[in-house]
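Notes continue from the previous slide.

Worked example: a multi-chain complex. Inputs as given:
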Amino acid sequence: MEGRDDQPTADVESGARLRPSAVRSRGAVTWPSVDGPLGVSWEEAETSARRFFFWGFAFLPLLWAVNCFYFWPVLVSKASPSSSPHFNRIRSYVVWSSIGFVIFAVLLTAWALTFAIGGEHLFGPMWKDLVMYNLADKLQLTGLM
Amino acid sequence: MDDRSTDSDPVTAGESSILDTLGEDVIRIVSPVSLCMLLVVLLVSSVSSTNDLSSSISSLFLSSTTTPTSFSSLNLLLLGSDSTWEEIKSALVTALSFVVVVTLLTFLLVLLFYFRCTNFLRIYMGISSLFVLSFLGGFISLLLISHFKIPIDPFTFAILLFNLSVVGVFAVFMPKFPISMNQGYLVAIGVLTAYWFTMLPEWTTWALLIAMSLYDLAAVLLPIGPLRLLVELAMSRNEEIPALVYEARPVDPQPGDRVRVWRERTDVRIEATENSTNSATVQTVQETRLAVSEEITAPLIEAFPQTGDRHLGTEEEEDGIGLGSSGAIKLGLGDFIFYSVLVGRAAMYDYMTVYACYLAIMAGLGVTLLLLAVYRKALPALPVSIMLGVVFYLLTRVLLEVFVVQCSSNLLMF
């Protein structure tokens, strides 16, 4: 089909794979979101980025990760004169979200690995009571459904 | 990238036909269906859950809440011994009552939609999917953790579960979310529900599948069918129905289209579909849980739009699969679920039946797409695939297995 190759940003077939180059043309980011033309516009993007950032504080660090993933083109590119005025604000939300998510991920991974690897050496007999499969058996959680 | 030239004949300048994008369209709907089936087969074969009569009866007496199989086991208790004929009778009763409940709930949905209670429906479906993702997801992950002895602590588990389920609800219902996450979570909901369904006893599962495909056929094609009414209502108002529908990305957004070709209903030419609310089906799921508790039954009922009805046409792609030049294919989540239930149940017997049923379902899906292209109206996605799947399951189990086993044991072939 003829028209298809003309669109620098209409790379929606591989939209699932991150192709920041696909949403960029001439150095500036055309589409704020990773979905490209199927995603949000710049104004909506700012509202979304802000919402994801603030809702992430409700014990939902995964929302911060979603924020970074969704606005990946904004995260990896620099501000240029031709980019939208919302760019800087979106970028600040996304950068702070990524910092928050990385800190949370490091803390959680450290704790989970300590628990898994330390095991009984570190925690003593309490480990057996705390580990999930024993806890599930004790509380009969798998019998509920 | 993909070479469409292999799919189609050369088209005249400026004119794009469906054939140009059909291969990519079909792949984009076949992949998630296959992924869903694969995950259910993996779950079923890795976590061998024994939900036969004895375990369900014992859990009936031991735990305070009844299990999903308790209804059918209760039926069996009432009917007497568990001979095959009694099992078949109880299975038929269960399946029929399921279909009746689904019909009633779909009519209720049509009524609510008619009176424009869309917000209520959306909130209800949000709560239902939250329920499925958190409770069912938690239950299945606990099964996996217990089976594989993963040393996770309850704190990490709770945080992960909470995050994944809440973000999942956002992904499925918020319009401004990454498309890949939306699709991924829809497949996840399908996998969880399908796995839960495979825990029903065998005869009940098969009876349920056949009953639901007949119901789907009737509900979409008959003039009084609730799903047809729903589709027509939504079309006449050009509104979105709150529903769980998997929508593939459009293959080729036309240059003249608006920016948001995905999930945008304001432009009639564009799919505006995605929000086909094929509620129903899940309601059937709830049937067995009706006896258990209100909050468990109710939520799941509306959560899964079942009608795999598809809709072909550039102008009015409201429901199901749209194959217009600017449209995207949509498939109701109930179709995902019931296809995966069939394959999951086949996996409980042997992998040979899995392969046979998978091929049968894909063939059925292809036939349905073909019919869609021919008839250009809403079509049910379940009947052809389920019927083919059931036939192939029986044939494989009865005829093919004997043949293959005999050949193998005599070192002749395989």
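Summary box: Confidence is low (pLDDT under 50) at residues 1-22 of chain A. DSSP finds six helices and two strands in chain A.
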